[in-house]
Amino acid sequence: MKAISLAYVAEITGGIAVGDASRVVCGVCAPEACADDKLCVVWKDSSLQGIPLTTPLLARKGLLRGHDGIEHDSPREALADILPLFDPRERPEAGIHPSAVVGAGCDIAPSAHIGPCCVVSDGAMIGGGAVLRANVYVGKSVTVGACSTLEAGVAVHDFVKIGSRVILHSGVTVGCDGFGHVPAPDGSWKKIPQIGTVIIEDDVEVGPNSTIDRATFGVTRVRRGVKLGSLLHIAHNCDIGEDSVIAGCSAVGGSAKIGRGALIAGMSGIADHVSIGSGVTVAGRSGVTKDVKDGMTISGFPAQDRGTENRFQASLRHVRDMAERLRRLEKLFSVFSQAAIDHDAKKKDN
Questions:
Q1: Considering the domain boundaries, does residue 136 fall inside one?
Q2: How far apart are CA 276 and CA 1, in angstroms?
Q3: Strand intervals (E) in 188-261
Q4: Which three-class secondary structure state does DSSP give residue 93?
Q5: What is the DSSP letter of 178?
Q6: Is residue 273 annotated as part of the catalytic site, yes or no?
Q7: Which of 148, 188, 210, 238 has the fewest CB atoms within 10 Å distance of its CB?
Q8: Same structural domain for residues 67 and 151?
Q9: For residue 264, what is the DSSP state?
Q10: Of the residues 236, 273, 318, 343, which is catalytic?
């Protein structure tokens, strides 16, 4: 178990140690599971209730209130620096496991790790410090960059290029055929060969069981710093811009383009050939069916400007009352209409 002083935590996070800076902690915890030997992360004032003064805290300035701990302007950002210090998982030793299968003409760096039952096909290149966990498949002439990690069960198909410091979580598939078929005269479907490739640039992370299809021709590209959640589908010939984030259970249609720094919330759908600008925010469960300009925030289905969509949704809450009022008006109109008819009939009789 690692033990680290508050002074060291403050140094690596850029925070300020408060109280006994020499005090050591051996982990991180949430307020509902606080412990005196762990650094408790507090996001808001109400979370302080019930936390003993003996528990060290990581919090914004003014929230420590007699606790030892770390003051930081952004506790969430600090947490990203702290958690690796206590990660019990160790990077495996370099080398190729005896059960792995390595093809001809491969270039595997001595510092790479090839785990049990992996398959590295002919002509593949595995960079220094790369880790392939158990049962990873690497296709023909694939490149895996330095310090990238392919977790158990990842499949990277022929001719795909993976950059450096990329993380592909378990079940990720890169380079399967894109979904391309055309109807034949007899009513069947004729497959369009998918002969392109996929390029994943540096510092990309892809969540479990996500799929990135190879291009029909040309390249499906995931640019530097992109973060993709779990259960995603990136279709053929897409271009995902630098530092964009796409949350889980979303799908991006073929040849769609997403600009730099876009934020796409979970369960969203992007239609084929749509272009989404830089800095766009797409709210959860949105369906994007047309191009979106830089910097917009959109929501709904079909997705539109967030303010317009919010007003539309608010108006829907009044539909039931409006329908009831309309029914009353119709009933009142019917009564007056009948009265008018009866009045006209009496005039004629007279």
A1: yes
A2: 47
A3: 189-191, 197-200, 205-206, 211-213, 219-222, 227-228, 233-234, 239-240, 245-246, 251-252, 257-258
A4: coil
A5: P
A6: no
A7: 188
A8: no
A9: E
A10: 236
Same domain, 69 and 177: no
Rounded to whole angstroms, the Cα distance separating 38 from 23 reads 11
Q: What is the CATH number of the domain that holds 136?
A: 2.160.10.10
Residue 21 domain flag: yes
Range of the domain at 260: 95-308
Sign of the C-alpha dihedral, residues 169, 171, 176, 181? negative
pLDDT tens digits, the chain, 350 residues: what are they?
Answer: 688 999 999 999 999 999 999 999 999 999 999 999 999 999 888 888 889 999 999 999 989 989 999 999 999 999 999 999 999 888 899 999 999 999 999 999 999 999 999 999 999 999 999 999 999 999 999 999 999 999 999 999 999 999 999 999 999 999 999 999 999 999 999 999 999 999 999 999 999 999 999 999 999 999 999 999 999 999 999 999 999 999 999 999 999 999 999 999 999 999 999 999 999 999 999 999 999 999 999 999 888 887 777 777 777 787 888 888 888 888 888 877 777 776 666 777 66
Q: What is the DSSP string of 280-323?
A: -EE-TT-EE-S-B-TT-EEETTTTEEHHHHHHHHHHHTTHHHHH
Quickly count: other Cβ atoms within 10 Å of residue 116's Cβ: 14
Nearest to 79 by CA among 9, 4, 140: 9
Number of helical (H) and strand (E) elements in the chain, helices listed first: 4, 40
pTM: 0.86
Is 314 part of any domain?
no
Q: How far apart are CA 199 and CA 221, in angstroms?
A: 5
Tell me the CA end-to-end span of the chain in Å, nearest whole number: 106
CB 3 within 8 A of CB 14: no
Distances (CA, A) of 349 to 265, 336, 341: 72, 20, 13
Q: Please state the φ and ψ torsions of residue 156, each to the nearest 5 degrees.
A: -120, 115
- Residue 187 three-state SS: coil
